Amino acid sequence: MENLVTSNKIWQDKRVFLTGHTGFKGGWLALWLASKGAVVRGYALDPGTEPNLFTAANIASVVDDVRGDIRNAAALEPAIRDFAPDVVFHMAAQPLVRYSYEDPICTYETNVIGTARVLDAIRRTPSVRAVVSVTTDKCYENKEWLWGYRETDPLGGYDPYSSSKACAELVSAAYRQSYFPLSKLAEHGCAIATGRAGNVIGGGDWSTDRLIPDLVRGFLEGKPVLIRRPQAIRPWQHVLEPLQGYIQLAEHLLSSNREDAARFATAFNFGPADDDAQPVGWIVEKMTQFWGEGATWILDSDPGVHEAGYLKLDASRARAELSWHPRLRLETTLQWLVEWYKAWQKGEYMHRFTLDQIAEYETLKPVS
Ligand SMILES: NC(=O)c1ccc[n+]([C@@H]2O[C@H](COP(=O)([O-])OP(=O)(O)OC[C@H]3O[C@@H](n4cnc5c(N)ncnc54)[C@H](O)[C@@H]3O)[C@@H](O)[C@H]2O)c1
Question: What's the predicted TM-score (pTM) here?
Answer without folding.
Answer: 0.96
